[in-house]
């Protein structure tokens, strides 16, 4: 999943909207001014933020965009970032047969000049952006493969959180919808036969934080002992962020599995930030 900034002229809005919709249909995150700028935003500040968050800056080149001071400034900023070694790529896309700016002259471009060959140009651009991950529709095998690289999975979550405007100097519990989409899939991994898969799921859910708590609370009632155990452990790792799961953790102190009972008590200590919680104590009145 890539965050794609579309640098363009207002005059080219029809094809820009079509391109944005097609990129989103392939599960890429797209920054486009008419949707991502809100009333009261500082224009230059928000555009810079979009540029600096982006993995790819797609510059849509036409006579109108070449005459746009904003597009030329966005191109200048992005090329400068690229030359400094920042993880961003500037991708030229031709909308009209015009001279390409000197800063990106000589680069291979995607060609959207001919409407009849639009699909081919889109295909070339998608190939450069790479495959994207549809968090909401991951299959069991796909999530198992992805969780083998927790850092990569967290990068995906962070990108989506950036796109939602929730990750600027904010802690991981603000993962929002990205966390809610992936949490149930990660909890399914608690039932995996491989311990390292279960532990990676536990670590990733801990970093997701509050967005995962309702799903973990529900998992405490699972018929699978491993699922209940890892849900208990994960909530304990979260500490205060899991306060809404206190009563569910109290109930697990009478679980039929000894390990679940023991770790439920330990997790209660952590969640309630207490030095000691007597076994079986009920937190009435919280």
Could you characterize what this model shows?
The protein is an alpha/beta fold and 286 residues long. It has two domains: 3-129, Rossmann fold; 135-272, Alpha Horseshoe (Leucine-rich Repeat Variant), CATH 1.25.10. The chain has 14 helices and five strands. It has helices at 13-25, 33-36, 43-53, 63-66, 69-83, 118-129, 140-147, 150-163, 176-188, 195-208, 213-219, 225-238, 246-251, 258-272; strands spanning 3-7, 29-31, 56-61, 89-94, 110-111. α12 (225-238) packs parallel to α14 (258-272). The longest helix has 15 residues, at 69-83. The two termini are 41 Å apart. Residues 275-286 have low confidence and may be disordered.
Gist of the model:
The chain has 286 residues and is α/β, with parallel strands linked by helices. It folds into 2 domains: 3-129, Rossmann fold; 135-272, Alpha Horseshoe (Leucine-rich Repeat Variant). It is built from 14 helices and 5 strands.
CATH names the topology of the largest domain as Leucine-rich Repeat Variant
Number of domains in the coordinates? Answer: 2
Q: What is the correct CATH architecture of the largest domain?
A: Alpha Horseshoe
- Please bin the fraction of helical residues: 40-55%
Structural class: alpha/beta
